[in-house]
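Quick start: what a row looks like.
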Amino acid sequence: MRSLSGIQPTGRLHLGNYFGMIRPAVEMQSQGEAYYFLADYHALTGAAEPGKLAGLVNETYLDLLACGVDPERAVVFRQSAVPEVHELAWYLSTVTPMGLLERCHSYKDKV
């Protein structure tokens, strides 16, 4: 089985992060290919100050390791380290109608 999950480095981790992403990530890494990303692009729209984002990315990575994510069994990477993520977002933005965005909860929360 192949899995992909991400976490936004917007501040200190909490129980929601642990039960929603970290604990399942630790369990899934032994069930096949596991890829976990630090969603630093997503975090740019959050409450964290941009100057503190690099430090939050490092802290979140260390927290993942401390909670049991094993870099020998899973790939952990920064979202911004993959240029294709930005390229794909640009392509999708050119064909996504505004009506679809207006029905999307995550978009409405950020606007």
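That is the whole record. The first helix runs from residue 15 to 28. The mean pLDDT is 90.
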